[in-house]
Predict the 3D structure of the following.
Amino acid sequence: MRYLLILTLASAGTAVAEPVPTIVPASNSAAAVPLSFNDPIYAKAVGHSGRIKLPPGASRTDASIVENSGEPTITCGGSCDLLRVRIQSREGIRCVSGNINLTWVYIAATGIGGDHADGVQCYSPGSQGTVTVKNSTFKMAGSTTAGYFSADNWRGSHVLENVLFEGGGYGLRIPADGGSSVSLKNVYFVRGSFQYGPYAFDAVKGQRISITRWENVRWASWKGDQLVLGDLIPRP
């Protein structure tokens, strides 16, 4: 964790270094997550007008999608890789099975009416896989369930590193029937933006999901267009 240092004079007249919260500038060159839909990381993104269904083994790079169908904007039918992809829609990405890698992904999902929208939803009862999310942001609004959600006997691992959650019922929700394990490193939740809480790992039939890593999970807030990282969130 970076800290700016401010020197103040203690009562004895000696200089004391006081840590203040890290401020992440509004530029992806200095931040580990995209801070807006127009983050410079998407400078080469090519626009797509509709939904994309990817077969196993497929990938997409430098894609920008704005649509309003209410269905998943991108469906990964099996193992897939998404790199520098931004989405503005009612429902973000559906993960079916396999090894799914999301890197530098920005999802702004706004649910409408009776939607139960998610930024990422792992759904295919009985299927399994590993979803790895790095350097990505999930910004939710309206009738939304969570930025990242997995349930209904989807078995697998969820690995998140350098991820920002803002808005929705929860930022991250994975009940015990939505995976076997979850790993979090450098994961940030915007304080005050969630309807229920930053995360939920619900017990199902007495079972709980395994938390294999909980490192530098923090609250965050906005100062203009700058992201300010705050207090650590204790491991549940």
User: Anything to note?
Assistant: The chain is about 0% helix and 60% strand. The mean pLDDT is 88.
